[in-house]
Specification:
By secondary structure, the protein is of the alpha+beta class. The chain is built from 10 helices and 18 strands.
């Protein structure tokens, strides 16, 4: 399977995107990869979201195919006199997963400085303190500096510099399983770029706007401005969704299994997806034998939160590639789920025309 051109392209994209630093508001490296891989003319909106437009046989409908470029990360908040770096989270972190992990601080000069997250040593903690989850404000990053002056002058680290986990892309013993940081949402970003590249040699009845949005992890900000810039008639959001095939979740509740196929999310607390569009995607997956799983989520949010409310409203669906251990230094994704997401996206882009999209917003229940 690794010799298959589509699979090889997927691994290339996943590795380059997942390893790239891209905390919210600092998505430059991911944006550069998007621009290089798409190989066509791109534009950016005023928040930094990037847009590539591929015209088909018709100007309409305009289909927005989007994923967010940012990952959960941190930002330098201050430096102690001893040269230890205090930091703030960018996005949702569970403090249990942070301590003793390596991180990369990206300086203004674009130098990457490796550090390790530290805190008060456990042998100096009381029994009560050991039983609690340590707060992020009680942690620091140690880069091996002498003092605050050393941090500033020799390391070049300043307040406001972004920080991301230090994690390399690894193919596990099962060659279809990959380990790295940032699969939320570089796996979705990979599908968007991969689909945009495949569109080059494909006939489609619509205009596709492939979009990489910024700052999703801190409040779905880039999607709001990008949706206004694109002005889509329909939207497909790609995500690295949390896998729930782990202890603590009953079998009947599991809607995001590795090897289960693309996840078609019907709703979460931030958005109820367009029912007709969602049904269209499910039926298309069944028609073509594409492995899929349907999800109704108790928690979470995606770029759909902003996109489906843009202007007078946009029929929107969310497709996910399940990832174990999102928002940590190391997530797991499976190639089969990636390929099923890519397959369904391409089938949708090939099929969606003006009549289909109009049917999603035709309400005849008067």
């Amino acid at each position: 399977m690794l010799n298959d051109p589509v699979t090889a392209a997927a691994i290339h994209l996943l590795k380059s995107l997942a390893e790239a630093p891209g905390a919210p508001g600092h998505e430059d490296a991911v944006r550069r990869i998007f621009r290089t891989e798409v190989g066509g003319d791109t534009t950016t909106d005023k928040t930094g979201s990037i847009i590539y437009t591929k015209k088909g046989t018709s100007e309409i409908p305009r289909i927005m195919l989007a994923a967010h470029m940012d990952e959960v990360g941190f930002v330098v908040q201050s430096v102690t006199r001893e040269g230890l770096i205090r930091f703030l989270p960018l996005g949702g972190w569970w403090p249990h997963t942070i301590l003793a992990k390596r991180v990369r601080i990206i300086t203004r000069g674009n130098t990457e400085i490796i550090g390790v997250v530290g805190a008060k040593p456990p042998h100096f903690l009381t029994d009560a303190e050991r039983e609690k989850v340590m707060k992020i404000e009680d942690m620091f990053i140690d880069v091996g500096a002498r003092d605050a002056v050393d941090v500033r002058d020799r390391f070049g680290i300043e307040v406001g510099d972004s920080i991301v986990p230090d994690s390399s892309f690894t193919v596990l013993h099962d060659p279809d399983v990959f380990l790295c940081k940032a699969f939320d949402n570089r796996v979705g970003m990979a599908v968007v770029i991969h689909a945009a590249a495949m569109l080059m040699s494909m006939t489609h009845h619509n205009t596709v706007c492939a979009v990489g949005t910024v700052q999703e992890e801190v409040g779905v900000r880039g999607a709001q401005t990008a949706a206004h810039a694109v002005n889509p008639d329909a939207a497909i959001i790609l995500e690295g969704t949390p896998a729930d095939d782990l202890p603590g979740t009953t079998e009947e509740e599991r809607q995001g299994k590795l090897r289960g196929g693309v996840q078609i999310r019907l709703m979460d607390p931030s958005a109820i997806m367009n029912r007709k569009f969602s049904r269209y995607a499910v039926e298309l997956a069944r028609e073509h034998g594409i492995a899929h799983q349907i999800a109704v989520r108790r928690s979470g949010s995606t770029d759909a939160r902003a996109v489906h409310l843009a202007r007078e409203g946009v029929p929107t669906i969310v497709l996910g590639v399940p990832s174990r251990y999102i928002h940590t230094h190391n997530g797991l994704v499976h190639m089969e789920d990636y390929l099923s997401a890519l397959d369904l996206v391409m089938k949708l882009l090939e099929r969606l025309d003006e009549d289909a999209v109009r049917s999603f917003v035709t309400y005849d229940d008067k």
